[in-house]
Amino acid sequence: MVEDQVEHLRKMRAAERKSGVNNKKKVANQALLLSVTSGKGGVGKSNYALNMAIVLAGMKQKVLLIDADTNLANLDILLGINPRYNLSDVITSDQFMRDIIIPGPGGIDILPGSSGVLEMLDIEDEVQNRLIDSYAELEQEYNYIIIDTGAGLTPSIISYVISSDEVIIITNSEPTAITDAYAMIKVISSQNPLLGIRVLINMVDSQQEAADTFERLNLVVQNFLSVSVDYLGFVPTDSNVVRAVARQTPFVLQYPRSPASAALRLTTRKLLSERRSRQLRKDGDLFTRYFQTKQDK
Ligand SMILES: Nc1ncnc2c1ncn2[C@@H]1O[C@H](COP(=O)(O)OP(=O)(O)OP(=O)(O)O)[C@@H](O)[C@H]1O
Ligand SMILES: [Mg+2]
Q1: Residue 163 covered by a domain
Q2: What are 204-241's pLDDT values in tens digits?
Q3: Distance 47 CA to ligand 1 centre (A)
Q4: How many domains, the chain?
Q5: Considering the domain boundaries, does residue 109 fall inside one?
Q6: pLDDT tens across 95-138, in order?
Q7: Does residue 58 fall inside a structural domain?
Q8: Which among 114, 119, 126, 289 could bridge 86 via Cys, Cβ 3.0 to 4.6 Å?
Q9: Which atom of ligand 1 is nearest to the CA of 235?
Q10: Residue 197: which CATH number?
Q11: Is 23 inside any structural domain?
């Protein structure tokens, strides 16, 4: 009897998803979904995402950081942790996302991801529903949900990014990194024209170098694409970042007075003060959109 009801509810949800109806009650203060990505690898995404999450938490925001790329050893290596469960356990067992969340440094929560799982399995409706439902639960609890994605134009990364409210694209001043950032902007803006796109320049020697790098990128964006991108700011090359990585501690906590920490606080304040309205999103939450974009491909 109870099972019948559960089955009925599942079918209703599946039907709602197919028809694009999302009748979950929305609260005023839903999490803003922010992905941190890059075209080229190794430009500083995981460090930025982790430390920005901590700074946001210090500004009274409730923050969940999702590591979408654990196979490449990102947040777990940066923090020296070895989470027992990850997103694949939500898929392969009957756990909900809240069950696998672990407390992180500086008051943030971390949801350990799982590389490739969402693509590899042909995920059944029931599991899709569990992901959608458990994400909806999280959305009510946090002010920000930040996804540290891998690098590059893989279908999984693109799905995460275009399912977000905003994306921060990180690049350094190398021409290859700028070119790859442009390619990323081109693809994601064509797939989600409402996405807010910000650019963060990492590992530069001066404010001028950062501004020049942004200008170089922005020029091609303006000339060839019909979107605009916002300059979020920069983080200088700082040996404290490297030292903190070696010690497996976030640099904003270990070296709060370092130039990188000061720059990070500045860009995070900007991000917070320019927080976009969630009203732009009408097509459901992260996993509803994630599975939708997969179906469309
Ligand atoms: N502002 C900085 N100053 C100095 N070094 C930095 C800075 N930011 C990042 N790095 C260096 O770059 C390395 C790579 O950073 P990180 O792991 O955050 O990059 P990523 O973009 O997440 O890489 P991947 O694409 O492999 O996920 C760090 O280990 C650190 O040594
Ligand atoms: Mg990384």
Answers
A1: yes
A2: 999 999 999 999 999 999 999 989 999 999 999 999 99
A3: 6
A4: 1
A5: yes
A6: 888 889 999 999 999 998 876 666 655 677 777 787 888 888 88
A7: yes
A8: 114
A9: 1
A10: 3.40.50.300
A11: no
